[in-house]
Amino acid sequence: MSDIRKWDEVNGVDEDPGHLTAFLESATDAYAILQLRHTDDTLYERFESYSSLQRQSKEPDIDHYEVVYHGDLPKAPDTPDAVMAQLEALYVQFNTAHPDDFRGHSLSVSDIVALKVGGVVSCHYVDSIGFKELENFALRENYLKNAEMAVEDDYNSIDGIINNGRKDEPETERHSVLDALKALSGAEQTERRPPQKQAGRDER
C-alpha cells in the first residue's frame, strides 16, 4: 500500500466524504473534527503541540487532515469566552462520551476543531494548553479544490478554473459548477480575537 494511507483505511474505518460539505453548507451553527491522516508526511506532526510544529518550521496543513466527524453546535451564551466554552465542551465530549457513530480517536493534541457560528468558520488547533486559532487554515479552499477534482478529467488542471471537465458536459455547464461552488464560500471570514489559553491537558 502507498504512503498516502489514511488513518481510517489503516484501522478499517470508512471515511464519510460528506462531512466537510455538510459542515460548510450547514444552515445552523455546526462543528467539525479534523484529525491527521496516517501518512509519512504526518509522522512527526501527530500529537505535537503547536510550538513543536513551529520548531519544525511547519504550520498545520489542510492536506494532511481529514474531517472525521461533524455535528450541530449547541448555541453558546453571549459571553466573551463563548467560543472557548464551546471548544472545551467538545473536548470533554470527544474524550468521555463519544457519539455512537464517531470512529476517530479521542480528541487530542494536533487535532483541529472547526466551528461555524453565524455563518463564520474558524479553525482551532488542539494544543497542549488550550486551543490555538488558525487564521490561515484554508478549509474552504480545500473544499473547492475537492469539488473541482470531482468534475475534472485532468487532475493536473486543478487551478480554480474548470477547463478539463467531463467530456459529456458542455463548456458553459462545467464553468457554472465552479461559479456555484464559489458562491457558497464567498462570504468573507470576519476577524476573530484568538481565545485565551486554558489550563493544560495531557497529550494523548
Report on this structure:
The chain has 204 residues and is of the alpha+beta class. It folds into 2 domains: 7-137, no CATH class; 143-184, no CATH class. The protein is 27% helix and 16% strand. The protein has helices spanning 7-10, 19-24, 50-55, 82-96, 139-149, 171-184, and strands at 30-36, 65-72, 112-117, 120-126, 131-134. A hairpin with a 4-residue loop joins β4 (120-126) and β5. Strands 2-1-3-4-5 form a 5-stranded antiparallel β-sheet.
Total helices: the number is 6
Portion in strands: 15-25%
The residue fraction in helices comes out at 25-40%
Unreliable segments (pLDDT under 50, ≥5 consecutive)? 1-15, 154-165, 187-193
Task: Please give the number of β-strands.
Answer: 5
Please give the order of strands in the largest beta sheet: 2-1-3-4-5
Secondary-structure element order, as H and E?
A: HHEHEHEEEHH
Please tell me the total number of domains: 2
Rg on CA atoms, Å: 18 Å
Shape by Cα distribution: globular
What is the average per-residue confidence, as pLDDT, rounded to a whole number? 75
Q: Please summarize the sheet with the most strands.
A: 5 strands, antiparallel
Give the distance, in angstroms, between the N- and C-terminal Cα atoms. 27 Å
What is the SS-derived class?
alpha+beta
What layout of secondary structure does this protein have?
Elements: H1 7-10, H2 19-24, E1 30-36, H3 50-55, E2 65-72, H4 82-96, E3 112-117, E4 120-126, E5 131-134, H5 139-149, H6 171-184
Antiparallel strand pairs: 1-2, 1-3, 3-4, 4-5
